[in-house]
Hints:
Its main location: membrane. Keywords: Cell outer membrane, Membrane, Receptor, TonB box, Transmembrane, Transmembrane beta strand, Transport. By secondary structure, the protein is mainly β. It contains 13 helices and 39 strands. A hairpin with a 6-residue loop joins strand 10 (about 170-180) and strand 11 (about 185-195). The longest helix is centred in the C-terminal third of the chain and has 9 residues, at about 730-735. The radius of gyration is 28 Å and the shape is globular.
Amino acid sequence: MALVGTSAYAAEEGEAIAEENIEQIVVVGSRAAPRSVADSAVPIDVVGGDELGKSGATDMLDMLASAVPSFAARAQPISDAASLIRPVNLRGLPSDSTLVLVNGKRRHRASVIAFQGGGVNDGAQGPDISVIPSVALKQVEVLRDGAAAQYGSDAIAGVMNFVLKDDADGGSISVKTGEFSEGDGAATIIDGNVGLPFTDDGFVNISFQLKNADATSRSIQRPDAQGLIDAGNTDVISPAQIWGNPEIEDDITIFANVGLDLGDDKEFYMFGNYSERDVTGGFYYRNPHSRGNVYSIDEGETLLVGDVGLAETGVPSCSFSNATAAVPLAPSNVPANVGNVLNTQPYMDMIADPNCFSMNQVRPGGYTPAFGGNITDTSLTIGTKGDIKSGFLTDWMYDLSGSVGRNESSFNLSNTLNPSLGLSTPTTFETGKYIQLEKTFNADLVRGIDIGLYEDLNFAAGIEWREESFEIVAGEESSWKAGPYADQGFNIGSHGFKGFGPETAGTNVRRNIAAYVDVEAYITESLMLGAAVRHEDFNTFGTTTDYKLTAQFALTDDLSLRASHSTGFRAPTVGQANVVNTQTSIVEGNLIQTFLAPATDPLAAFYGASELTPEESTSFAGGMVYQNGDFFLTVDAYSIEVTDRLAQSSQVDVLAEDYDDLRLLGVQNPELISGVTFFTNDFDTTTSGLDIVSNYSMSLFGGETGLAMAYNFNQTEVDSFNPDTTSDGKVRRLEEGMPEHRGTFTVSQSWDSMSMFLRANYFGEYWAVHADDTSDWGAETADSAVTFDAEASYFLNDSITLTAGANNILDQEAQELKPGTKGAVGGVYYESGPFDYNGAYYYVKATYSF
């Protein structure tokens, strides 16, 4: 019930295409019997598990990005929860517009929502595919075509199917270690796979991976922090903040795949995983002179002084008044005699009064919060499939399955304060959890029906029931509590990432049921036509019906044309509809604390939010396939129109003139909220592009030589948007924030005892923006770039392979931040770049196979 596909990079390493040009079977794209790649009506890339492992990349995201040009994954150095689970995109659309399958079954999404997702992924909630180790995979199948009518919500950009190994014997164990040319980011990965028999008619295939990776730093000392040091403040560290990859500790994952032949053409299957990791990343530096609501008033020059008596008894007792500027806070670049507020006489007089305090007494040099989390991911799928040989469904093939998936993100914050608690504030906080839980049941039927066509009509039908829940678990009290000094202007909750309070805790659930019909047949020897229609009913926002049409026509034995047209949809996730979060953003060099509220929250509704609805899509695609011996070429053009596109809004300022109205609506302490964001359906886009994939293998230099080329052109235009909730800067980032041109060219060579490859990666120009700041302050057009990857393997014997290689071997630098912005962000490079800003990465690997 699948198509046959050939990898875009099948020639790489000289493995995927042998002398016989063996083709690979895939299970996405069609529910008909397997067909050759030349007969495929939709473009599908197949990347072998061994091929994915031949890379310096330390997780699945970067492995796929180097193998599929229309797939991208970006580093997230300072991006709240997006640092813990990185968002990805296929064909320029967000991560939750690509449906992810494992062994053909829907994979649950992550609990983390990318609040700072690099523009295209702002607010996206896709699956966490980084937990899938390459050692567990037989292959990855990438369907580059809209498929919502076949598979349901999220399949607007395409489908990715991760096929687990199913060997009943043999296995491998490997150790890989490497680090960046700067001498940091050292990573060690130990992985293994073993196939075992399960009686005489089945298998148990188990894979594991253990990974640890140090943090990287591409930081520079911030000028404001250096100014404090020069002025005599001895409590400021250098650098004041770390800008780089987060630290990953004890990243363990286990995958198991089980199959058993039950006889009579029936089989049982089961697969699942357990994964867990700890991640710690950085935040922005809090300056002890200018950070408003912590150290100063309105980020000005007056120290924020706490009055103990006013907080405890309601009677003012502190002799220093902020209103009269009794304790001045000078800018960070003032002369040394007042550069450190702790050395000024007004400050010394103030702290001598036991009824007064400032947060400088707790963190005199300022502070940089460290944001971390524990991510736990589990899943289990059980099913049976086979032929029905009696009853009214005789001659039908069936597949019945049930799946459950759970992803939990537990957040923590250290080296920070809850200023509203005064001097008794803790400095470490457990800020709460997000939990995503999904349950799915599928029943599928398929059979061939002879209606007088060139081949039997393949008829498939099925139903799917899904339940999705999103739970917010409250953090410890000190992480969200409004302490006794909140009314005096001190920030509420753990600063940088406020804990989830009891008012936001709870579970929200959505259920839906879907039914589909899919037909496909060769009308003549040269013409294949297919159609699918799917109807889904959601208990929260109603129904949707979508369809897909496909066609393939063979002009000659070597050349065929293909086309598809489909409609699709993406339902807003339960998390997007109900999530609550407080985030810190940098806008024009200033730190802004923004509250993310559900669209139905009074604060969000006051500033224009409304009930979320599904986004809808219309896709057109056409292309050609040419295959002659060892030469393979596909060219595919596509256009994807998305209306009512769902994303996180731009920041909307909370105005002082609105404070009284907001209080009447029940919003607490609106004066401490700089801005609000929410999810909205406020813009439409058209994404169009072109994919070219080609490979060729031949005998050369006494061995096998492979040449592989892949190119992707992708362009997004925002057709309409609401200027009240989507800024011009965000529109430009959506349209220009990723390179329109991306290409790779790989040369591989293999002999009996050795193999090697060299890969060139091209990235076109793009609009570079720092973090989520869409203003012109820190943005510019980034130059195109070329990086090179290389690897060589020596087969010591039949069991042992030694490997050495490098990603970005020539240490091509990422785009540097424009002058005047490096100091404000404490970093050197734009984080929104299409390749790793850390520079060259060198690695060695030893593998033992048995």
